[in-house]
Design a protein that fits this description.
alpha+beta, 5-stranded antiparallel β-sheet
Length: 177
């Protein structure tokens, strides 16, 4: 798709189309330390707006924005200056249990600071028709109903966490809490 401060901007995320009117992409996937990446609104491709930081070790997503990221042209300097400060906050999307486990919970921080249990996630051995690479299935527990009330399949933790970040935490989220 392009580049933002030296990091590649991935293709628009299909999973986010179901829960947001904005266009979302992962920035720096495969380039950042430990598998981390940024989640950005690319609705205007000439003005990439970073909204979240995905932490690959935990599966958590932290709110952040362009204004919180130090204004360096070089992504490695930018992240070194901002990374720890961003991760000091409570995550917007929090995985309970280890992403190495067979099952766990995904929670979303509410405005009051407490967490809503959004879903249970399970590893699956085989994808399904239309999602042959799926490794995760979610079973909703948030009580939202609608499309969020149906089980979902995901190819990766970053996809699952980003989907829930866009569904619950984005400005135009379908499930504002």
């Amino acid at each position: 798709m392009g580049e933002w401060r030296g990091l590649s901007v991935g293709a628009a995320l299909e999973c986010a189309e179901r829960v947001s009117s904005r266009t979302w992409a992962l920035v720096g996937l495969g380039q950042m330390e430990g598998g981390d990446c940024l989640i950005a609104d690319i609705s205007n491709p000439h003005d990439v707006q970073v909204k979240g930081l995905y932490h690959a070790v935990t599966g958590d997503v932290f709110d952040c924005g362009n204004d919180e990221l130090a204004l360096f042209d070089d992504a490695s300097l930018m992240l070194a200056a901002s990374y720890d400060k961003i991760r000091e906050k409570d995550p917007a999307v929090h995985i309970l249990g280890s992403i190495e486990d067979v099952t766990g919970q995904l929670t979303v921080r509410q405005p009051a600071g407490n967490y809503l249990r959004a879903c249970r996630w399970d590893r699956i051995k085989q994808g399904a028709l239309g999602r042959p690479n799926a490794i995760l299935r979610t079973l909703p527990q948030c009580g939202c109903g609608g499309s969020l009330g149906a089980p979902q399949l995901f190819d990766s933790f970053v996809e699952m966490s980003t989907y829930h970040f866009c569904a619950f935490c984005a400005e135009d989220a379908v499930c504002r809490i």
